[in-house]
Design a protein that fits this description.
Oligomer: homodimer
Number of helices of chain A: 15
Number of strands of chain A: 9
Strand content of chain A: 15-25%
Largest interface: A-B, 43 and 43 residues
Strand order of the largest sheet of chain A: 6-5-4-1-7-8-9
Order of helices and strands of chain A: HHHEHHHHHEEHEHEEHEHEHHEH
Distance between the termini of chain A: 40 Å
Chain lengths: 341, 341
């Protein structure tokens, strides 16, 4: 301050000019530099403008601004396997070591065999059994420490990089843009709430209280020294997928989102619930149609819905009908990962 | 700005002086004017100072600052009956009208009789049946609208005022002081999450996402026009009392609180869990020992624990042993309600 004061009022005017120039530059710079111009980018920018401009008929007070994001396939890579499934499979040897009787029981036997083809055929029920065995029975602190260790070391086989680097740079920009516009951003994931919370703050700037996911119960108890702790239990409290997403949003946030982002049939109800509110609404679906830079699956594969699993033709048609915006990774995103040139 | 710029640099110095004077005045003014000087007030102020002063060995980064508050008996009057119980009892005639077969079934028959003595003898199981019948089966919007209507009209029989005016002014000051010090404040109540969320923002400045309470499940469905909505179900997702409070805190917040405020055995585990963390900790219990200005119950009644129910001698002894601070309404609070002179 001192030099400016010494130089008198002329400098105040310069200071003001600089300040206002800064504000103008901020408003005019592109908040979404990794997005190509097109309907998807336009939809995001227009939504932010109409909901945050004072006097706009669709203005939303800051306290009510909520945007929810699916994680797997929406914020980071989900193929060929959810990272949490890879974590669970990797935990199986430790679980079998602690309970040797599991070594000859399916699905643990298949996982211990190391036969990748057999593992790829594990059913959803098999995976639920594996999740229950590998994600429960320990304290929440022990679990957190184990996930932290894994996430720091594990690498995706295609990119040879930590999973935490495989977040979509354009979506990171959307998160930042919405936050800078007064939105509270939430992850609403079918993945494990405790699992995602471990890294969400560092990776997405998403604090634990803004991560909603599939959650098991915990049990309060005491260690030998009388110190209380919570043990993770194999008791489902919230199945945060499909209809469970709006139910989880009501439970954990208590407000209907103004904007929601997903990529699969597991996100259908979240987008529908978001769209059923008043005022401006933004519903977006990430379409994986870029086999070169990431993957092409869902409608981009040209397969019947029965073979597709997640982002179906039926969902694509519903998006068209309801005015949800489909984000084409191939066409809408200049780059996909931050490590790309 | 213009007059100041016109008058030259002298005014800048005055402006700076005014600004700094403002900051000083803010720092020195009493954030807890309804509290008498004493160990309780001192504990709060010292906790805030050591956790928010940069360079303090017990400094807590703003993102990690969490304080949790029980509601009934901690933030507002809970005697002679929880306000939510009064709401549920008042809803019984409408429920019986919709389902006439309940008129001759207990506990509904007793409630319909209007016999206050008989109603006072209803057991906890009776109240759970009444809660399930009166708090579920409708959409979350219908429920919210009904509670809003009730809370605007219902009055406490002793003070002849809306329940929302029967919040403790000293605790309102603690909420504001902690928020101004960068703490996120949460209600963590054994009461219904959906019920408390209806008025918590207006009454305590507590947004819905910062209200954790006993929660039932919801079911996603569609009305005749195809619009999706959530129906409240009689399925318990979180029993947010006793050990359920730390479990609820883990589920909904995902961080251990730095400070926790309660008044009864239902808050014991929340305070214990809060106290088991590292660094500075603040655990406080409101003791209802002022029969003149509010009520005297718990240890203040001089009855054996078996007759006391909520704030027991055993809890009082545990507080002493663990260094929790007991707030005496009689001695620590200059005034109890904002409407007092």
């Amino acid at each position: 301050m001192r030099p400016i004061v010494r130089q008198g009022t002329g400098s105040i005017a310069i200071l003001c000019a600089l300040l206002f120039a800064g504000i103008d530059a901020g408003a005019q710079s592109d908040p979404l530099p990794s997005w190509n111009d097109g309907p998807a980018k336009k939809a995001i920018v227009e939504f932010v403008q109409v909901t945050t401009t004072q006097g706009s008929p669709k203005f939303v007070p800051p306290a009510e601004r909520v945007a929810t994001f699916d994680q797997d396939g929406t914020l980071w890579v989900e193929h060929p396997m959810y990272s949490q499934v890879i974590y669970c499979l990797g935990r199986v040897p430790a679980v079998v070591k602690a309970k040797p009787e599991l070594a000859n029981v399916e699905p643990f036997k298949t996982v211990m065999s190391g036969n990748r083809e057999a593992m790829a055929r594990l059913t959803k029920d098999d995976l639920i059994k594996i999740a229950a065995a590998t994600l429960t029975g320990m304290s929440v602190e022990t679990f957190k420490a184990d996930v932290m260790k894994w996430i720091a070391e594990a690498k995706d086989p295609r990119w040879k990089r930590p999973y935490t680097e495989l977040t979509y740079q354009p979506m990171q920009e959307v998160l930042k843009y919405l936050r800078a516009s007064g939105y509270r951003t939430y992850i609403v994931t079918g993945g494990g709430q405790d699992f995602v919370r471990v890294y969400a703050e560092q990776v997405y700037g998403m604090p634990p209280e803004q991560v909603v996911g599939t959650a098991g119960g915990t049990k309060y108890g005491y260690d030998k020294s009388g110190r209380p702790f919570l043990t993770k239990e194999p008791r489902l409290v919230l199945n945060d997928d499909n209809a469970g997403k709006p139910e989880g949003i009501h439970l954990m946030i208590g407000r209907r989102p103004n904007a929601a982002f997903g990529n699969s049939i597991g996100d259908r109800q979240m987008l529908e619930y978001t769209g059923a509110g008043d005022g401006a609404r933004l519903m977006m679906l990430v379409l994986h149609d870029d086999a070169t830079r990431e993957y092409a699956y869902g409608p981009a594969q040209g397969l019947p819905d029965s073979k597709v699993g997640t982002f179906t033709q039926a969902l694509y048609k519903e998006a068209m009908k309801k005015g949800w915006t489909v984000i084409s990774m191939k066409n809408d995103w200049k780059r996909i990962f931050s490590f790309e040139p």
